[in-house]
Amino acid sequence: MRPTQAPFPATRLRRLRQSPAIRALTRQNTLTVDDFIWPVFVRAGEGIKEEIPSMPGVFRRSVDQLVEAAREAADLGIPAICIFPYTGIEERTEDCAGAWDPENHVNRAIRAIKQAVPDIAVMTDVALDTYNINGHDGFVENGEIVNDRTVEALVKMTLAQAEAGADIIGPSDMMDGRIGAMREGLEAAGHQRVMILSYSAKYASAFYGPFRDAVGASGALSGDKKTYQMDPGNSDEALRLIERDLREGADMVMVKPGMPYLDICRRVKDAFGAPTYAYQVSGEYAMIQSAAANGWIDGDKVMMESLMAFKRAGCDGILTYFAPAAARILNP
Ligand code: PBG
């Protein structure tokens, strides 16, 4: 038990807030560049860097441009990037074969980045949505998202990414049994060092809206993702999912979205002590950027405060589109 505080005036808590030096000395949580994983978008073509309308300051890049971005991120000290593909409707099929094509945009980008910028860790996204004609994370049969056949495809996708040189595999699909199947597949293929950062507690959230624009899925998605992503009313279920994923072989776990689910981050960290990450998703980013663009908030200050909140909630790191901007403020 902590000692009870003596009453005023013996205790003046403002004493500890009196100057920048004392505030620095007594600050409990800190934010550093080491805390960031930067999500990026790769697309077809060459020499392309196009801004995503609903995510000002975020770009879709062709592989050559993405390599440059990875180099800048490494120079800023950002430890990891996470690659998502933008796929046009013509790149999507019912059998989702593009997902495990060694030559898809993501796998080409992984190889190019690992060659040019070997020190930055490369994370991937594993789910079928960006290759699926109907935008779902799993195969659709008779209107249902089927689990086990999807898991087989996710393992193929995982192995193609590991083969390309990915360091961290990020399953975001929310199918049951995928972590165990992926871990078994990786071990059997000799990829013992490849890590899995599981999107374990991923909610069916409206905060993903701008991301679906970014990857070209907005028009494609039929229905919603509520039969596989979590209900926002649940919290104990998050602990069951994390416990299961760690048992099946996840090295790190994630809560997603971030800011509206900080209570879940704290519970997860306290319960398991595993490396815990939060994804500050596209809608969270867009809200801050749009309010800042209108002059309603100070964008930089709100950005830094929002990122610190994740540290306070117990997170070891944050997937955030703000990574380069925040890095520039942290290390001017
Ligand atoms: C795909 C995936 C999504 C995000 C990351 N991976 C969207 C979804 O589940 O519909 C969202 C990221 C963001 O909003 O920034 N499985």
Biggest β-sheet: count, sense, barrel?
A: 10 strands, mixed
Structural class: alpha/beta
User: Please, how many helices?
Assistant: 11
- Please tell me the total number of domains: 1
**CATH fold type:** TIM Barrel
Total DSSP E strands: 12
Which molecules are bound besides the chains? ligand PBG
| CATH architecture annotation | Alpha-Beta Barrel
The percent range for strand residues is 15-25%
Give the distance, in angstroms, between the N- and C-terminal Cα atoms: 41 Å
Q: How would the global form be characterised?
A: globular
Assigned CATH superfamily: Aldolase class I
Mean pLDDT: 96
The H/E string reads HEEEHEHEEEHEHEHHEHEHHEH
Fraction of helical residues: 25-40%
User: What's the CATH C level?
Assistant: Alpha Beta
Mind explaining what this structure looks like?
This protein is an alpha/beta fold and 332 residues long. It has one domain (31-330): Aldolase class I (TIM Barrel). It contains eleven helices and twelve strands. Strands 1, 2, 3, 4, 5, 8, 9, 10, 11 and 12 form a ten-stranded mixed sheet that branches. A two-stranded antiparallel sheet has the order 6-7. Strand 10 (252-256), helix 8 and strand 11 (276-280) form a beta-alpha-beta unit. Helix 2 packs across helix 3, helix 4 (148-164) packs across helix 5 (178-188) and helix 9 (282-293) runs antiparallel to helix 10. The longest helix has 17 residues, at 148-164. It is globular. The model has no long low-confidence stretch (mean pLDDT 96). Ligand PBG is lined by residues 125, 127, 129, 137, 172, 208, 211-212, 225, 281-282.
